[in-house]
Amino acid sequence: MEWEFTAAEVVRGEVDYGLAEFRADLLKEVEQNMGGMEGVAPERIFEVIYDLCYWCATGNEYDEFLSGLDQDSFLPAFLGTIRAHLEPNIEMLGAILQSLIMERVEGKNIPLEEALKQVDELNRQVVAKRVLN
Questions:
Q1: Which pTM does this prediction carry?
Q2: Alpha-carbon distance 96 to 22, whole Å?
Q3: Which of 2, 10, 30, 70 could connect to 46 by a Cys-Cys bridge, CB 3.0–4.6 Å?
Q4: 3-state DSSP of the chain
Q5: Exposed/middle/buried for residue 34 (C-beta within 10 Å: 0-12, 13-18, 19+)
């Protein structure tokens, strides 16, 4: 995706761009890129791509995520081919998460461990709401 702002601006709180907006934008991108492909459910691909972005944005390795997938499916190979395209998304999601954590630690004086738990729970809530129609 391309934004009219940077990940650094999100981290500094200069731009109001959160998890729900990111997920909605990512869904649009996946639908645009996957639309019309027979046998492919863009919504399912979106969910896996978001999970991969979140996995990497929280400090985990791309290849470790791929190795946890069903190797007989097309997903590991597909996700391997779009790695470079996902890097900006991973960076932006990381910035969003960092901003949310800093907001709690610096703005609300919440201990770091508790802030990490709260942001993880917020992510779970946003994912549970789903941006899918």
A1: 0.90
A2: 9
A3: 30
A4: CCCCCCHHHHHCCCCCCCHHHHHHHHHHHHHHHHCCCCCCCHHHHHHHHHHHHHHHHCCCCHHHHHHCCCCCCCHHHHHHHCHHHHHHHHHHHHHHHHHHHHHHHHHHCCCHHHHHHHHHHHHHHHHHHCCCC
A5: middle
